[in-house]
Inverse folding.
């Protein structure tokens, strides 16, 4: 066991953070898609 495993600075659950990152990236790409579809519909 190395010294970094003993002295952990961040001890929250990584699954929660990765889930939030997935949702944020999904919403971002969905917004890009929705804007593109709206422009395509209007023009």
């Amino acid at each position: 066991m190395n010294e970094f495993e003993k002295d952990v600075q961040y001890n929250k659950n990584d699954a929660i953070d990765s889930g939030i990152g997935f949702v944020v990236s999904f919403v971002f790409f969905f917004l890009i898609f929705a804007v593109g579809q709206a422009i395509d519909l209007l023009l």
